[in-house]
UniProtKB/TrEMBL annotation:
Protein name, entry field: Acyl-CoA dehydrogenase
Superkingdom of origin: Bacteria
Domain Acyl-CoA dehydrogenase/oxidase N-terminal: 8-125
Domain Acyl-CoA oxidase/dehydrogenase middle span(s) in chain numbering: 130-224
N-terminal signal peptide: none
Length: 394
């Protein structure tokens, strides 16, 4: 496990830190530390322009291979980029699903023609993507997908069904959708991986209001919507979907932790200002939060050091469970440091502070992306080799 960086890596760190200092100003100054958990609804138009500013500087898709328009950065340099991005307080990325999930998946599985069609818009920050996986009856287990894809007489794939918890669907231009191509199939078989324009008749986006009063994610309805492309062959959907999920546990985890550090730093500052730091119990919880974040970093670096062919091994299995539980506890710590008055707001429309939003939003951390219960099953079955959970009625 590497805990230090080379001189060349540190020069790269100075380059990205300097660029952020020079460009995260003027019209973008207001975006500092905005767009994080519970705050994704803020400044959407400005954050879209920021994506294009990043692209102009060559700072989108830094880990993509050079032949696909990226910088071809090493794992170490990608870690540095995400750390410095978060350290500078740069805003939450509205292009992260395209850059971190759709793009790498297209590079791995799509045809050259499809890559030439879809990758440039992601690189330029001009086309945003969302993910069409979960359904009302298929959350953590895609084997229950019911959205259907049927070919018409012209060979087009026509989609009908519903997706849910679709983050940033209301801001997106494209959606990658897992749908059932074989109506007689069951489980993981008979699925296709489709690329669907969000700007067409037959696609309806409805916001889902969260505890924070905002609507970062949505439900999406497909009513005879036409898929622009299918990646791979009908029936390859499960393989491609699992390949995509492998990219989700990538180097951006270190940037996520720097955002966590920013939140913890704010909590510590408030504890010192309002006297909460004099409470021994709160001091102990702050210390535990600091230690937990350090452990998270070392586990992530171990995970990335073991990465081979996008398979980080057992170390990757514990990561989601660890950070989700830690972040939920951080939200509770924030409220306790703020004091009882933080549980009240004056009147509607109930504008929340960043830490109040953090507390409410982190209730969902242990649910989305695989619940804690599902994560424990995965650790037990895949990591420890224990018997699979019994299925069926008890």
């Amino acid at each position: 496990m590497k805990l230090t960086f080379t001189a060349a890596d540190e020069a790269f760190r100075a380059e990205i830190a300097g660029w952020l200092q020079d460009n995260l100003c003027g019209e973008f100054e207001q975006l500092r530390f905005r767009g994080g958990p519970g705050d994704e609804h803020m400044f959407p138009a400005e954050r879209k322009r920021w994506e294009q500013k990043l692209a102009e500087g060559g700072w989108t898709c830094v880990g993509w291979p050079r032949e696909h328009g990226g910088r071809g950065c090493s794992i170490e340099q990608q870690v540095i980029f995400h750390e410095e991005y978060a350290r500078a307080g740069a805003p939450g990325r509205v292009g992260h699903i395209g850059e971190g999930l759709a793009g790498p998946t297209l590079i791995a599985f799509a045809s050259p023609e499809q890559q030439q069609k879809y990758l440039p818009g992601i690189l330029a920050g001009t086309e945003l993507w969302c993910q069409g996986y979960s359904e009302p009856g298929a959350g953590s287990d895609l084997a229950n997908v019911r959205t259907r894809a049927v070919q018409d007489a012209d060979g087009r794939w026509i989609l009908n069904g519903q997706k849910v918890w679709t983050s940033l669907a209301h801001e997106s231009d494209w959606c990658f959708v897992v749908a059932r191509t074989d109506p007689e199939s069951r489980g993981h078989k008979g699925l296709g991986f489709f690329l669907v324009s969000m700007h067409q008749p037959g696609v309806t986006v409805r916001p889902i209001e969260q505890l924070t009063g905002t609507s970062e994610f949505n439900e999406v309805f497909f009513d005879d919507a036409v898929a622009a492309d299918i990646v791979g062959a009908p029936g390859d959907g499960w393989k491609i979907a699992m390949g995509l999920l492998g990219f989700e546990r990538g180097v951006s985890t270190l940037g996520q932790q720097m955002q966590f550090q920013n939140e913890l730093d704010q909590i510590v500052r408030i504890a010192r200002e309002n006297g909460a730091a004099r409470d021994p119990a709160l001091r102990q919880r702050i210390a535990e939060a600091h230690i937990g974040l350090r452990l998270m970093r070392y586990n992530a670096m171990r995970m990335l050091s073991q990465d081979s062919n996008n398979d980080a091994g057992p170390a990757a299995l514990v990561y989601k469970l660890h950070w989700a539980s830690w972040h939920r506890n951080l939200g509770a710590l924030a409220m306790d440091v703020l004091g009882p008055e933080a549980e009240m707001v004056e009147s509607a429309p109930y504008n929340l502070t960043r830490l109040q939003s953090l507390f409410l939003f982190t209730r969902s951390d242990t649910l989305y992306g695989g619940t804690n219960q599902i994560q424990r099953n995965i650790i037990a079955e895949r990591g420890l080799g224990m018997p699979k959970e019994a299925k069926g009625n008890l």
